[in-house]
Design goal:
Number of domains: 1
Strand order of the largest sheet: 5-2-7-8
GO molecular function: dynein intermediate chain binding; dynein light intermediate chain binding
Largest sheet: 4 strands, antiparallel
Distance between the termini: 24 Å
Helix content: under 10%
Strand content: 35-45%
Protein name: Dynein heavy chain C-terminal domain-containing protein
Organism: Nymphaea colorata
GO cellular component, one term: dynein complex
Number of helices: 0
Number of strands: 8
Radius of gyration: 13 Å
Length: 80
């Protein structure tokens, strides 16, 4: 389903963390697991001045799994 504002992104991977589906936030990675698949993300445009009240966690995000052909990491600010 197409969002009214923004775009859904799928197929990204996280390095050194994982998405905790129970708490709906980023969490420490499982032991011996470096990369995890990122859940679907809805990216919505916003002014950075409106994001000052959100906690954030900066981590590398990849377009493909690191074992395959991969583009350089893209910086995405993920809020939790």
């Amino acid at each position: 389903m197409k969002p009214e504002d923004g775009a859904y992104v799928d197929g990204l991977f996280l390095e050194g963390c994982r998405w905790n589906y129970n708490n709906m936030m980023l969490d420490e990675s499982e032991p011996k697991v470096l990369y995890t698949k990122c859940p679907h993300i809805l990216l919505r445009p916003s002014h950075s001045s409106k994001l000052t009240n959100y906690k954030n966690y900066k981590c590398p995000v990849y377009k493909t799994s690191p074992g395959g052909v991969c583009c350089p990491p893209q910086a995405i600010l993920l809020t939790s």
